[in-house]
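Hey,

Quick one before I head out. I ran the complex with manganese (II) ion overnight. Inputs first:
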Amino acid sequence: MKKITLLGSTGSIGQQTLDVISEHPEEFQLVSLSFGGNLELGSKAIKKYKPKFVAVKDKETFSAIQELCKEVEGVTYSYGEEGLIEAAVYHDADLVVNAVIGSVGLVPTLKAIQAGKTIALANKETLVTAGHLVMEEAEKHGVDILPVDSEHSAIFQCLQGENKKEISKLIVTASGGSFRDRSRDELNDVTVKEALHHPNWSMGAKITIDSATMMNKGLEVIEAHWLFGLPYERIEVLLHRQSIIHSMVEYHDRSVMAQLGTPDMRVPIQYAMSYPGRLPLPSASSLQLWEIGELHFEKADFNRYRCLQFAYDSGKIGGTMPTVLNAANEEAVAAFLNGKITFLQIEDWVEKALEQHKAVSRPDLETIHKVDLETRRFVGSLLS
Ligand SMILES: NC(=O)C1=CN([C@@H]2O[C@H](COP(=O)(O)OP(=O)(O)OC[C@H]3O[C@@H](n4cnc5c(N)ncnc54)[C@H](OP(=O)(O)O)[C@@H]3O)[C@@H](O)[C@H]2O)C=CC1
Ligand SMILES: CC(=O)[C@@H](O)[C@H](O)COP(=O)(O)O
Ligand SMILES: [Mn+2]
């Protein structure tokens, strides 16, 4: 029986992680969870899974959730950043599924690693903003960082039993997002509703917008760099509109390994949770390639998807540059979702934030926090 902590339990990945736990009650027990402010889904999970520890975003939610779940005995509640960290290091858990959104996931991940927990990582912003700190800490504490992101899970699966030294390149597939069939000129007045309509995946709002700008793929290139230790020159992005091939690895004999499946995040979530073994998932659809008929591929266009170029450039510069990329993008996406800026202004804001920053190499946690905050302030000032 693996004892699980789930950070971000009310989100898209969080809810699918709960589905996986429900499919395998004899394999997984939820002992600690966190959520932000979604009292409906939060209380439902507490009543069903009866965790021992619950952390929420703020004091108001902290009071409300205790009232809503007063019949569930033996639960300790907490809130705020400290609460999220307490949930992450909860003593009885073996594995932490980090499914929070944004760089708020960084410190809980570092603390969970220091507490010796295995990490199933969906929260890619953690690796983008401070990948070197996370990987160093994982190495130091002998902790596995298991990818949940579908592309990285695919690569990880293609690497099983292979020698990493024999990899020639990683091929990360990209759907192209909500606006893949529109030209740049047609993006001037797209709406939030249109942007939130991903062709293949049902996901949280922020990642769906990232997918439409292709920043998601940029963040994933940086994520792959840290998880698999390859230089950016050997990480390629390939447009593949069906999201059936989740990513590939080319070895130096030119053999290419791919992982395929219907787009269903429960598969990579469960693989990270069951690793090194596999568990059945009968409710997932079986891939019928004859129904799909053809798989489609295109070269990634860096002029069309400027955020992809920004991500490669930031990753190659390294240091605090990806921290700026991530913080500026988080702020810009939130502003777009709140109707304050247009879709194309997202990339303008990110570009301006990157231009004004002088990268600091090998930043410590304090520097990461400082740069993250300064970037958010800078980007905020672009509105006024
Ligand atoms: N969705 C997907 O299919 C995929 C997602 N990912 C990655 O997984 C991560 C989660 O994505 P997704 O599930 O879509 O996101 P969602 O927005 O659906 O969920 C985010 C979760 O984090 C919680 N949360 C938000 N802000 C805070 C905060 N400040 N403090 C504590 N908790 C907070 C939310 O709580 P509440 O809602 O209660 O406020 C919610 O539980 C992201 O990094 C994303 O890039 C990767 C691959 C696929
Ligand atoms: C499901 C998943 O892992 C997402 O990151 C997904 O890949 C988004 O799709 P695109 O960014 O390829 O549109
Ligand atoms: Mn992905």
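The chain has two domains: 2-147, 152-262+271-317.

Talk tomorrow,
K.
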